[in-house]
Amino acid sequence: MMDRTLSALVIDDEQAVRDFVCTVLENDGWHVSRAASAEDAFAMLGQESWSIVFCDIMLGGADGFAVLRRFKQEVPDTKVVLMTGHGDASGALDATAFGAYDYLLKPFGPEELQSLSAALRDQLLSKPHRISTGRRATANQIDVDLVGRSYAFIEVMKQVGRVATTNLPVLLTGESGTGKELIASALHRRSGRAESTFVAVNCGAIPTELIESELFGHVKGSFTGADRDRRGLWEEANGGTVFLDEITETSLPFQVKLLRVLQEGEIRRVGSNQTQRVNVRIIAASNRDVEEEVKAGRFRNDLFYRLNAVSIHLPPLRERREDIPPLAQTFADRVYSLSPAVRFSPRALELLQRYPWPGNIRELENAVVRAAAMCDGMIRFKDLPDRIRNYQQQ
Questions:
Q1: Sign of the CA dihedral 209, 215, 220, 222?
Q2: FRET pair for 218, CA 20 to 30 Å: which of 185, 275, 334, 367?
Q3: Beta bridge pairs of residue 35
Q4: DSSP symbols for 218-266
Q5: Sequential pLDDT tens for the chain (394 residues)
Q6: What's the pTM value of the predicted model, to 2 decimals?
Q7: CB-facing half-sphere around the CA of 237: CA atoms within 13 A
Q8: Does residue 298 sit in the same domain as residue 344?
Q9: Domain encompassing residue 19
Q10: How far is Cα 375 from Cα 18, in angstroms, rounded to an integer?
Q11: C-alpha–C-alpha distance, residues 311 and 172, integer Å
């Protein structure tokens, strides 16, 4: 007997896609309704109820984001999965930040649908789940640097979208150059703090004896050279977000003070006995294995667990090679933003995709910007840096 708890609506203007999704779901025990447009789906609202809606983004009339907004307003318990054949990382971020349960890139196979179906079944037939509300994201918001449609990067963007509107601390990990500050900024822009300040701090670049003053401020006379009261970056970011990059480079004594600030929500300027409440969200990052740093005694265990409420790992560029061509084109276009587009020769593009990029996105950007500045409108093998050309010979 079919459990009516497992009810789904599939919205797509392509009959072949509709039939495929419906068949997979029906074979998996779902009761499925169909609609060829957003308008057809809106007409069915109030007459039927569904646990899940699968909706294409590019529809003939109102688009998938309009469907997502309407269902979130009228039936907020219904989950919405957006589907698209033209998606990228920024789209995945917008979809999940705006409240989508998931984001599927076409073409997808039955295994992906069956995996999603199993997860939904477990949720619906077991315990109640919490529904996130109050999303602030703007659909189709453009993030120029969030380029890519590789599976690895899309999964990262889904995580970013889901946690953006919470106040939970986030710990970003990944090799140098993978874009941790970019992701931190995206988290801030999709949050309820987006209208307030985003402050990025490179903890490894601040001398140990100055980091407390830099972050929390100081009062006049608190140390040599402190000739006036000074607000720290924590106060500058009040109401917003502080991004602590390379957090594992901080000293153990400073970690104790940071932990107290996170626990109590109060700071004390260096040399002052007075505390003041400051409301900031913390995003931390490291290119090290933080758990290994804890085991080695270089990072406090209690601070790690305080920062690690949500952990997001950024994959190295060599694990998302299909994103290299669009990233390279983005960087090249910046050099000649008012001129005809710079192109890549097939040989140059092939080498860019083969090279292992130990410096990740930052190294790719430097290489492409240099090549674009020196080329004649097309980046060829000879325009690439020596280290990349030499890799061809290995």
A1: negative
A2: 185
A3: 11
A4: B-TTSSTT--S-B--HHHHTTTSEEEEETGGGS-HHHHHHHHHHHHHSE
A5: 344 568 999 999 999 999 999 999 999 889 999 999 999 999 998 788 899 999 999 998 889 999 999 998 899 889 999 999 887 788 888 888 888 999 998 889 899 899 888 888 877 765 433 333 333 333 333 454 688 889 899 999 999 999 998 999 999 999 999 999 999 999 999 899 999 999 999 999 999 989 999 999 888 877 777 778 888 999 999 999 999 999 999 999 999 999 999 999 999 998 888 889 999 999 999 999 999 999 999 999 999 999 999 999 999 999 999 999 999 999 998 887 655 678 999 999 999 999 999 999 999 999 999 999 888 889 999 999 999 999 866 5
A6: 0.75
A7: 25
A8: no
A9: 7-125
A10: 47
A11: 6
Angle at 197 between CA 200 and CA 159, to 5 degrees: 65
Tokens of 285: 């990052």
Asked whether residue 134 is domain-assigned, the answer is no
119 plus 11 within the same structural domain: yes
Measured CA to CA, the distance from residue 102 to residue 131 in angstroms comes to: 14
Q: Last residue of some domain: 290, 313, 336?
A: 313
Q: Are 322 and 298 in contact (CB under 8 A)?
A: no
Asked whether residue 194 falls in the same domain as residue 302, the answer is yes
